[in-house]
Amino acid sequence: MEALILIAVIVLVVVGVVVIAQQRSGANAARTLDDAKADARQAIERLGGQVFMLVGDGPASKQALADAGERYTAAGSQIEQANSPAQARLAKQTALEGLYYIRAARVAMDLDPGPAIPELDGQQSAGRVTEDRQVDFEGRKVEASPNPSDRTPNYYPGGRVAGRPVPAGWYSEPWWRPALVAGAWGVGSMFLFSAMFSGMAGVPYDAQGFESGVGDGSDLGAIDGGDAGGGDDFGGDDFGGGDAGGDFGGGDFGGGFDF
Predict the structure, then answer these.
(1) N or C: fewer beta carbons within 10 Å in the chain?
(2) Which residues contact 130 (CB under 8 A, 6 or more apart)?
(3) How far apart are CA 204 and CA 121, in angstroms?
């Protein structure tokens, strides 16, 4: 009889320990999610303040602000649906990317770019445009520049699109958009990449590297003696980049990308 009582006591103790552990685990998980959401909302609120405050004064700044607004809307939707810390972090990344567009718009308007922005996923290894380039591709001219202009009003903060790195910079058209929409690159993308970036300092991988997805952040460090992350200087020396999206702005895609 005593043995049965002892066994019952042990079982009750074990059950109590398990219940307490589960409660603590659930409380910790909820706290972690709440912290991640709060962190993301700070970035989203910061982005929203800039989106509603600034008004573009030219093609480059207007396009960058439009892209920032799109990121603000997307981040707001993501944080409302976030049920895990990873999903909350995705919302923060989207908001941070929007802040890079804000920074680019401010530079295009000759305003103070503002405080530094945390580095985006894959930003450092994506590379950056370090010189003006103009190439003929599929019957049209495609330009890249480290600086905004009426000819290069489409900014991209860099990073990976559909598994491949896209250098940060200003472009005549958002040539990465077809891959962003379709989730895959067309056969012409490697040729465009080769023509535009071959031999450019700041883009430390060739067309074959682009094709194979080189630039995931595991094999490349600082680029060309500069810091490609952090977005401290968008005036041409330091762009950084991101993994969270692309530019949905204008541009003529002609027949250059075959899906």
Answers:
(1) N
(2) 146, 200, 201, 202, 203, 224
(3) 18
Query: What is the C-alpha separation between 11 and 33, in angstroms, rounded?
Result: 33
Taking residues 227-252, report their average pLDDT.
Answer: 38
Rounded to the nearest integer, the mean pLDDT of the chain is: 80
Q: Provide the whole-model pTM.
A: 0.71
Residue 129 clears pLDDT 90, i.e. is over it? yes
State the Cα angle at 89 between 83 and 95, rounded to 5°.
115
3-class DSSP assignment, residue 206: coil
- The 3-state DSSP class for residue 143 equals strand
3-class secondary structure, 229: coil
> With contact defined as beta carbons under 8 Å apart, do 77 and 132 qualify?
no
Rounded CA-CA distance 203/201 in Å is: 6
Give the residue among 240, 249, 229 at the shortest CA–CA distance from 180: 249
Contact 247, 174 (CB under 8 A): yes
- Contact (CB, 8 A) for 102 and 47: yes
Sequence length of the chain is 259
Tally the C-alpha atoms within 13 A of residue 168's C-alpha that lie toward its C-beta.
35
